[in-house]
């Protein structure tokens, strides 16, 4: 019983939790650095920032803090960049309308735009071209078959493809053969006694007409 009385006589002091405050460089108590931000660029070289944050929400409102942010360099994947355009290619046509192209290369991945550019040629000379055909000339024969001709000319040079002269048959119908008119009678010979005189006619076109060409 005496031991129990001694125990009752002992008074225990309650445990008290006390927060320790300290200074570390330019930090202030209860302030800590937050997470680094994302890099300021999607590619190439940029920066990240970090800010001081109150470790215990609401416990830092009466504290004056300087240098609340800091930054550091960050490096992302190299940016995609277009190389300069190449020289224009030769025109697709040596004359008249045509097109030319030029190319470029993307250093990296995902360049915006086209790798090829096309443009019309502006310094080509006009291509050689035929004029319209002339009217048909008169037929070389009135019957029995002949030829007629028409022509055209080449402009912008002499390299037009094709013929500059065209022939076609004409007047293929058969000729009507008839003698020409009789010529005058010849002088009667001899001067006395019985004698004869003659006259002739010709067949046009050099063909053979029926009958005789001479009459006595």
UniProtKB/TrEMBL annotation:
Pfam families cross-referenced by the UniProt entry: TSP_1
PROSITE patterns, sorted: TSP1
Ranges where the record places region Disordered: 195-216
Keywords of the record: Disulfide bond, Repeat
Source superkingdom: Eukaryota
InterPro entries: Compl_asym_regulator, TSP1_rpt, TSP1_rpt_sf
Keyword hit for Repeat: yes
SUPFAM superfamilies: TSP-1 type 1 repeat
Protein name in the entry: Uncharacterized protein
Organism for this UniProt entry: Ciona savignyi
